Amino acid sequence: MAQGRATGGGPKGPKPQAIDEAVILERYGSNALRFAGAPDALYERRLKLDNVVEPDRADARERYEAAARAVRDIVADRWLRTDETYARENPKRVYYLSIEFLIGRSLGNNVMNLMLDPVIERAFGEDSHQWAEILHQEPDAGLGNGGLGRLAACFLDSMATLQLPAMGYGLRYEHGIFRQTIRNGWQDERPDNWLRHPDPWEVVRPSESVEVTFGCSFELRAGALRMIPNSPSSLVGIPYDRPVIGYGGETVNTLRLWSATALHAFDFQRFSGGDFVASIAEALNAESLTRVLYPDDTTVQGRELRLMQEYFLVACSLGDIVRRFRETNDDWRTLPDKAAIQMNDTHPTLAVPELMRILLDEARLDWDEAWDITRRTLAYTNHTLLPEALERWPVDWMQLLIPRHLELIYEINRRLVADIRARFPGDEARVARTSLIEEGQTKHIRMANLAIVGSHSTNGVAAIHSRLLRTTTVKDLAEAFPERFNNKTNGVTPRRWLRLANPWLAEAITASIGDAWITDLAELKKLKPLAEDAAFRAELHKAQRACKARFADWVKRHTDVVVDPDSMFDCQIKRIHEYKRQLLNALRIVVLYDRLRENPKLDMRPRTFFFAGKAAPAYHLAKVIIKFINNLGQTLDEDPVVGGKLKVVFLPEYNVTLAERCIPAADVSNQISTAGYEASGTSNMKFMMNGALTLGTRDGATIEMAEEAGEENFFLFGLTAAEVANSRPWYSPYWHYENEAETRKALDLIFSDHFSREERGVFEPLRGALLTNGDPYMHLADLTSYLAADAALSALHRQPDEWARKVIHNIAASGKFSSDRTIHEYATEIWGAKPCPAG
């Protein structure tokens, strides 16, 4: 298959082409064709051999497992060939370390990337509902929660599509974060047992397990695990591999997930001797380590478990990376030439002292050589400007859990502080700010500082984020090491988020400009002239209507809520947090509702507001916001004055599958974070790519999106990041309450218990957030501007042709926001990695 590489037009993967039977046979062998419906089809054989069931008696779950294993069988040769090529060619490999990988469902995505659509059509063409039912049986993998994990998943897709020799490393969480349900308007957390059935995609590799040693051991006392100092203990990381298939199936990389188990799974002698609790505690502790994503951080035990998870991920992954390196390389000094290790946020930062430990204690290198190798091998991506979100770990905990690493961190810091003092003599305040050790009653290790100092590259994920990172968040370190800082604006994979999620729009685009956009999203710029093409605008409308009808059906089946597909779909789907300002969105709706209460005959086009997202279990105010959104929706439904003009729907259990349905159906994308707080965002890119118009602040990547499409095609509002920062000393939310009539009336309506008549006072925490505590995220400062932008958007929606023109300009300008472009920049500017096509 012809390959394209990055030129001035951006990175390109395998050129899409029609697949016929001969191509399938050549690429994947007879297994692919046998899957297509012959009497001894691979799919049917899998049903019989794995599940011992006749095809006509198999249930939906059994059919899913058989189909998934059949597809995995088809890709197995290519997966092996990819690994063999890397072993033979010994290229520089990329290792992507992330605490999250929000990969969603795999079957449909893998079939698409393998270009096996003709096979599926042949096997299920006469019964497409059966294929849809099979796809529905796969749970979303509980390996992530939000944008951080979804970005990592998109990046793996792009690395494989661009044929980069790469591997992802994460943890195999047994229960994910939690399964969200709504009870009486409140978020309710339940275990997400996504692995209750066998996962047909994973391959366990016990022979490549890694032993991880902690500086303490653990005992079970009064139902709680307690650390015992000065008593080292070990756990074992067992690797589970999943295929990561590049588009076209040419390269199949690996996502390796680590599961924890006890070094000795069950000590029969101890148990038989009567030490029942101790023998079981070891196994329970080991299994608990990878049981959930983000343990409850309101307890000391939960935070300690989080630190253990982070070290376990790093120790297992670096142990595996070093093993791979040593298989084909004898000289430790060549490690930076053969391995690029990317730390996705601060969670894998312990890779810095862990790699130093390996080079000093195992390779026996001197400090300077080990430090040079470590820095040139590691790179760090920062994802937050919020000081409270920059990880800090108590020194005492590290002394208990990983004392050797703490020793190394202190030595790194001693040398860092000496360097800063030499370069900035007399500036002890600067020394204190750059130090890896945060002094205080309890000393902490600043993980972001350690990641920056211990790597050769620190990148932000949007232009504004990278600038603020350098000038505010870690200003002193950026001044000390300016050459290490750079920007890599995020991107998303167009394969999953356009071709798979929105087949109607994808087909309309392909019919107009060809299918090269699938691996070169810059091709979408060819759509721009079609904004004046009435026929294409009509196709766009048909595609959007199909997506909205599908989503309305999905909402009815999953929530029993009926929505009007002809209403405007106005969406905000993301993690619930004050800075993301779901509360500002809700205030907008309260104002619109109050306008209807004053004038029931007001000409207001029907609109459905969709919210989705999870709140951290211990984040009470975020949970109150969810409760308020649900009560708001219930009040609107029950008030006859609304007359179907406004409807609010909170969709529980936000995940990739929900996003794949919601985003293509959206008319409006709300990206309304307080300016200067959102690092980048990726949902904004997905919405833009699918034709939703953005109603947003000048924050994160939304700024660059508006630059690409033209601000005239966006609905921007609110304070800029500089205005937010400059107004901090004098900002008073009471001014807006006292001087803006609609703001005051909306707040008075909330605090009068209009939305909580049976639960009086339940929304008092909102008074604290918006008024009493100073409105730190400036909801009230931006509300009036938000309403003005909303009015302009609503007016445009009455002009379908003008709306469609802006939609087309947005889609045509979304090419920059492909993860292929982002990964190409990482590969050329940070990793120094080149494609290595599987031979």
From TrEMBL:
One of its GO terms (biological process) is glycogen catabolic process. Keywords: Carbohydrate metabolism, Glycosyltransferase, Pyridoxal phosphate, Transferase. InterPro entries: Glycg_phsphrylas, Glyco_trans_35, Pyridoxal_P_attach_site. It catalyses: [(1->4)-alpha-D-glucosyl](n) + phosphate = [(1->4)-alpha-D-glucosyl](n-1) + alpha-D-glucose 1-phosphate. The modification N6-(pyridoxal phosphate)lysine is found at residue 686. Its EC number is 2.4.1.1. GO terms for molecular function: glycogen phosphorylase activity; pyridoxal phosphate binding. Its cofactor is pyridoxal 5'-phosphate. GO terms for cellular component: cytoplasm. It comes from the Bacteria. It is an enzyme of class 2 (transferase). NCBIfam families: P_ylase. Allosteric enzyme that catalyzes the rate-limiting step in glycogen catabolism, the phosphorolytic cleavage of glycogen to produce glucose-1-phosphate, and plays a central role in maintaining cellular and organismal glucose homeostasis. Belongs to the glycogen phosphorylase family. This is Alpha-1,4 glucan phosphorylase. It comes from Roseiarcus fermentans. The lineage of its organism: Bacteria, Pseudomonadati, Pseudomonadota, Alphaproteobacteria, Hyphomicrobiales.
